[in-house]
Every structure is written in C-alpha cells, then in structure tokens.
Amino acid sequence: MNPFIICIVTIDDMEKAALIARVLVEKKLVACVNIVPQIRSIYSWKGQIYDESECLMIMKTRRELFGKLQTAAKELHPYEVPEIIALEIAEGLPAYLSWIDESTRPKF
Amino acid sequence: MNPFIICIVTIDDMEKAALIARVLVEKKLVACVNIVPQIRSIYSWKGQIYDESECLMIMKTRRELFGKLQTAAKELHPYEVPEIIALEIAEGLPAYLSWIDESTRPKF
Amino acid sequence: MNPFIICIVTIDDMEKAALIARVLVEKKLVACVNIVPQIRSIYSWKGQIYDESECLMIMKTRRELFGKLQTAAKELHPYEVPEIIALEIAEGLPAYLSWIDESTRPKF
Question: Which residue stretches, if any, does this entry annotate as coiled coil (chains A, B, C) (predicted)?
C-alpha cells in the first residue's frame, strides 16, 4: 500500500470548494487542492436523474490521513452524502512526494 | 481488489458526452458521470500529432460492471478506438460507496 | 502491477502545458495528454497559503516509462518542485491500451 493518495470531492459551488480547500490545507489534512470549475454532473438520486453544474476538487495527501480528511470534509460539505473517494498514487517525483509529506505534518 | 472504480472516457462533444452519460446512468451501469468541458487533447494517431478540443468524462461504478460498461460506451461512442480506462477507488466515504452500489443494481 | 498509468502534472500556463505535451508525445514518452484549463489551486508553500490559477495535465503511458517521463517533464517544467504523480490504470478497452503501447514504442 503506497503512502500517498489523491482524494476526489465534488461540490456545487466554487466558493464553497475554495473555503473547504483552504480549511483542509490550513489543518494540514491535505498539501494542496486543485478545483476544476463548471463540470456537468449527471447522476441518479432517489429514482430521479439529475443534470447539474458542480466543481471537482482533487486533493493530494497521505493515505493515513484519509479518515480525518473524510470526517473534516463531510462536516464542511453541504450535501447529505458527498462524494469523497481516494485513489492510490502509484509513483511520483520524490521531491514532490516529500513536499506532500512535510505539508501534512504538524510543525511541532 | 477493491469493488469500486472510476472510469475515464474522452469524447469530442459535450452533448454526446451528456447523452452517453444519461444512457449509462439509466441502464444502471454507472452511478454518476462528471463531464469536464473544453479540455485540450494532444496525441499521436497514425504518425501525426493532433491538438484538439474534447470533454473528459469521469464515471463512478462497481468494478464488476466494467466489461458491460466498456461494451455499452464503445457502442455509443463515435470514435474508432475511444479512451475507456478504469482506476481503482482505494477508499471512500462508506455512505457514498453504498450509494454507488445501490445506484448500479437493478431494482427487481 | 499493471503496465499502464495516467500521469498528472500541474502547471501555471496553457501554452507551456501544450508545449510540454507536444514534446512528450513526439518523444513517445506518452501516447496522449489531456489539458484541463483554468483550475484553481490552493496549497501551502514555505508556510504560506496560495490560491492560484493552473492547468491540469493528464497523460497516458506505460508504467516502465515513468522514470524517463519524470526526468523529461521536470526538465521542461518551470517549477522548482512540480507535481508529477502516476496512478495505475486497473482496466481498459484492449484496443485503447494497445494504442498506448504502440504510441510509446520507437518505430525502429
């Protein structure tokens, strides 16, 4: 099991996305967040099909933080059941992975 | 092997992407599709380099459906050899993963 | 370990992204690159939080090329420590995976 992951979260608004991203970076739960604006999301919910505008958040962090990240993101997120999923980073530039590691550890 | 995946498909037009997405959701082959508009794709095809506008589709489903999803997406897709790839979801919010599971199982 | 990966790189400018993409495709280090424009990146760097506009590059290639790809992308990239990470492709349309394979092997 590799120690680093990307975490994907979708949300309906760029400013909410930026707020959540900033809180998670400040709490050192993630090293960075890329927010892709204006994606179109098509999904089924309680038997109906929806076609809505969302943002896609792509976070980079350490796998052992996923539990805490999940809890914090869920608390900040307006949805009842938000998309919060993680994919394993298989390889990466060593200096970049070190930066993810340092950015997600408390200073003291 | 984890039971959930994201599936990535690229296509040259947003309305075609939305149509394919809706069919796959209605058929319960995927729970949801995020469509990223106006990406720029640079690739080589039969010895020539192309630089074209596409959309990126990110689908969430169960891994055991990938064969059926691949067949259905290929049939609906205008390209000779479309990009249809899957990445394993390593972890996720349990309620969200349950929703993917329920949304991709026939009602009766 | 599956033989194919997607590689994610972020960069601050679309034309730089397109240039790097073209060089990597010409060198047969990647089969294709999708560039997502105008993403918003929130991250911490040397104790400060930044909120900046970037592009997201998603490349498809063979895993055994990641070392060479990493070196080439780092040389072309303006950042001191660029994001260069790889995720394993778990499954894919066989014809598409073959195309990735052929597109990343020297002709002679």
Answer: none
